[in-house]
Amino acid sequence: MTAHPWMANSVPAIKEAMLRETGAPSIEALFEQIPEAHRTQHAFNLPPALRSEVELRRHMLQLLAKNRSCEENLSFLGAGIWQHHVPAIVDEVAGRSEFLTSVWGTAMSDHGRNQAWFEFCSQLGELVACDFVGLPVYSWGCAAGNAIRLASRLNGRRRVLVPAWMDPERLAVIRQYCEPEGMASHIAVVTVAQDATTGLLDLADLRAKISEGVTAVYFENPSFLGLIETQGEAIAHLAHQAGAQVIVGVDPISLGVLAPPPDYGADIVVGTTQTLGAHMSAGGGAGGFIASRDEERYAREYPTLNISITTTRNPSEHGFALSLAHQSSYGMREQGKDWTGNSVYLTAIANAVYMSLMGPEGFRELGELVLARSHAAARRIAAVPGVAVRWTGGFFREFVVDFSGTGQTVAAVNKALLARGIFGGKDLSADIPALGQSALYAVTEIHSPEDIERLALALEEIVR
Amino acid sequence: MSGTPKLIHQARWNEPVVMEMGVKGRRGIVFPRPETDAAALVPAGMRRRQAPALPEMTEHDVLRHYLHLSQQVLGMMGVSLFGTCTMKYNPRVSEALGLRPQMAEIHPLQDDSTIQGLLEIVHRFDLILRELSGMDQFVFQAAGGADAAYTHTCVTRGYFAAKGELEQRNEIITSIQAHPCNPATAATAGFKVVTLMLEENGYPSIEALKAALSNRTAALMINNPDDMGVYNPQIVEWTKLVKQAGGLAFYDHANFNGVMGRIRARELGFDACMFMLHKTFGGPKGGGGPAVGAYGCSAELAPFLPKPIVVKDEATGLYRMDHDRPDSVGKVREFLGNLHIVMRAYVWARAMGGDGIKEAADLAVLANNYMEKKLLAIPGVARSNPEAKTWRMEMTRYGLGPLKEETGLGVVEVGNRMTDYGIDAPWLSHEPWVVPEPFTPEAGELWSKEDIDLWCDVLAKVCDEARSDPEMVRTAPHNAPIGRVDGEAPEDPARWATTWRAWQRKRAALAQQAAE
């Protein structure tokens, strides 16, 4: 058979030469460790090989052509993954073969990658105003789960308070990390109500539920429903009085205009990295981070891989080496902090490039543009007869659109929008029934005023 | 030996940390001016007061900076026989496909009707993995191999909770040779971990397993072959014993490359298994993800899988995400998983086909045993489990214990010096080090005979240098972008710094201390 382009030794003469060197009578003989009875008696029924890139690519293009993307359509979906602009050089750098294929290496031979990782942590540290930043974890939800477990190890408590109107995806991950009831080390997840008028955390309910048994209070900014939580200081004060940690989840893309969480009392900051230059990729862009003050008691509980700046044999240069690796599962197996493995480290390099491009002014401009466009969209949609916007101000990027007054379900509206090439906002009716037939709309810098008008006109047609 | 290895020299750009770069007022990207004033849209007190101290650079300068960094990465640019990670070629056709809008610009909450191609890829690949493993259903939510091990601990909790045995079955058994993610995820999920030690043949004894099993056993989590290249011939008895004790058997298929196309996990009695799509199936390493741990299980465990599951309606031919799974353990990560990596794995599997996959296993095992001959001819090199006389599987663990005794130089120094010849430093071993001064090369089906010969020649050369010029080896690398780093500062609370701002603060504090 023709040699395979990805298998150098599939040339018969090479195989023979290598086999001769081993002294084994046949390749099959090299598998002598596998007992005969273990070997399958059933042939592998796999689809035919497409060895030629010509036919392989064609096959894949046919499959991908069945997808309808947010580029060819107009999408207002957010809720955990957001469509932001990805600058061209982000793809150029993240696609570099050296970064794409590196595996582990050493601090010297893979110096450039380690430096890029340190620059990811350093720039993110500026945005969230934290001195200690770990290398990324799988997602925002995983970061929140890790942070809650970290808090629980710090203070030995086993109850966490979270907002009632949380992203159901993220909450499901948090519940997983907190372990189900019945496990000896279960952390109880207790929800705190949100004020129906403001959408913000209900401080009376928080006061009722905070106690000496609470390991941490977790809230988000912006919240799942897009609202800017203005009571951060009061929440942190109540939590700290009870000896609980304050964990705040953020989307760092908002931090050019919004105050960083330590300003209002956060001990640990978590959040997404997807918005910082990662394509949505059907959710594959997800990434999360954990950050805090650089205090030893926090640092020694991090489950992440960490990279520290250090010196080298040459006085004039920096190096970047792993820090506190021994406390991970690589160093201590089941005694390690949660577990550590492959994560989203290539995405971290994309994030680093993105943050370098943005700079302080880029983040400010983008933040203001998102604020302006999303509020303009909310105003325009609220003008559609029968359609209401639940909270008309005080949000970043996302807002709740209530279709209850139209007599139509969100599902019906979204179906009609889809027929017009528009992906409507995430249907909230099942997750938060108190909001009626509502949907969560996301508007970012990629949405032009014409896009917003197109949505509004479509809605006017649909709900007429 | 095919010749004298030649030294290389890596790029050395003396690149500053990006935080030191730029000039106030320069811009890397600008945005349209908002149509309305946004100043009033941030609630009082929530406006950021102090701008983040990020670099202010042009687009061109940002690009050059990161290109310089990329050029200071050896990784796969030379020869990397990085064992346990199964270095593969990452087809660039997949990278190009991954950037097309029909993959990159897909939102995970889109209506099923708009992602039929994506769901079809997932379903087709699920069928391929089912065929390779004998399992009944796969999910791709886990974002790495360790996350797939975690998925197993979650499914285990769901399975025993449904049987009312969750509190009783609180132990998970593994071996000291299993990847650390197995005991670590078991502990994170709330289980007690029982670790079996290796015996003369290279694997734990049946007796040790029997002694560990009880009505408290929830699961066995084990790899096979292990990183020594030893296949446990008693594995079928193991899974039987675990089943008799009422536990679940999970196959960590991290080392699938040598056995693919010959065995099926389910036929060996396993209830569940996981494959790493970023290694065995050609997804890029990316320095550590985005990755996928594909988790598959029997029909009995399938109801407990994380949701959603991609299903095909055979009547209409349409695909959908099934969220209506009342026994599901929920989620291990948001959304469906790294489907852009699943797409790459599907590309790999289709390009290889059944014959190609079997041939890859043949070549991987051939390469490892070919290499063994050459490595054992180098004075200073020892092999793990010297009593185990059979041919090894796709990788073997060796040790430089004899060289260290002779020269005082071990595998870390040798690995550093190997990079001066363009060889990526080898993988050593997970902790604990069962073999002194361990290293674990794995050639797989990717690397050519010439690459393997070069690798072995470089190791031989460096072992010679350890005797003839030990100081030079001790202070290696010499041709890397930087000199050998100080590994102690990153462990010292007064000096570690994971961010530039922390380092600025600590450097100032240390300088002040010194002045006083």
Explain the layout of strands and helices:
The complex is a heterodimer of chains A (464) and B (516).
Chain A: H1 12-22, H2 53-64, E1 74-75, H3 88-94, H4 97-101, H5 111-128, E2 132-133, H6 140-155, E3 159-163, H7 168-177, E4 188-192, H8 203-209, E5 216-221, H9 232-241, E6 245-250, E7 268-272, E8 288-292, H10 296-299, E9 306-311, E10 318-323, H11 329-332, H12 345-382, E11 388-389, E12 398-402, H13 410-419, E13 422-423, E14 426-427, E15 438-442, H14 449-463
Helix pairs in contact in A: 3-12, 5-12, 6-7, 12-14
Chain B: H1 59-71, H2 92-98, H3 101-104, H4 116-133, E1 137-139, H5 145-162, E2 171-175, H6 181-188, E3 192-196, H7 206-212, E4 217-223, H8 235-244, E5 248-252, E6 272-276, E7 293-297, E8 309-313, E9 318-322, H9 339-376, E10 382-383, E11 398-399, H10 401-407, H11 411-419, E12 438-439, H12 449-468, H13 470-474, H14 500-515
Parallel strand pairs in B: 2-3, 2-4, 4-5, 5-6
Antiparallel strand pairs in B: 1-7, 6-7, 8-9, 10-11, 11-12
Helix pairs in contact in B: 4-9, 5-6, 9-12
Describe this structure in words.
- The complex is a heterodimer of chains A (464) and B (516).
- Chain A is of the alpha/beta class and 464 residues long.
- Chain A has 2 domains: 114 residues, Alpha-Beta Complex (Aspartate Aminotransferase, domain 1); 267 residues, 3-Layer(aba) Sandwich (Aspartate Aminotransferase, domain 2).
- Helices cover 36% and strands 14% of the residues of chain A.
- Chain A is built from 14 helices and 15 strands.
- A 7-stranded mixed beta sheet of chain A has the order 2-8-7-6-5-3-4, with helices on both faces. Chain A has a 4-stranded antiparallel beta sheet with strand order 11-12-15-14, with helices on one face.
- In chain A, helix 3 runs antiparallel to helix 12, helix 5 runs parallel beside helix 12 and helix 6 packs parallel to helix 7.
- The radius of gyration of chain A is 26 Å and the shape is globular.
- The model of chain A has no long low-confidence stretch (mean pLDDT 97).
- Chain B has 3 domains: 256 residues, 3-Layer(aba) Sandwich (Aspartate Aminotransferase, domain 2); 120 residues, Aspartate Aminotransferase, domain 1 (Alpha-Beta Complex); 31 residues, no CATH class.
- In chain B, helix 4 packs parallel to helix 9 and helix 9 crosses helix 12.
- Classes of the chains: A alpha/beta (464), B alpha/beta (516).
- Chains A and B meet through helix 1, helix 2, helix 3, helix 4 and helix 5 of A and helix 1, helix 2, helix 3, helix 4 and helix 5 of B.
- Chain A: This is Glycine dehydrogenase subunit 1.
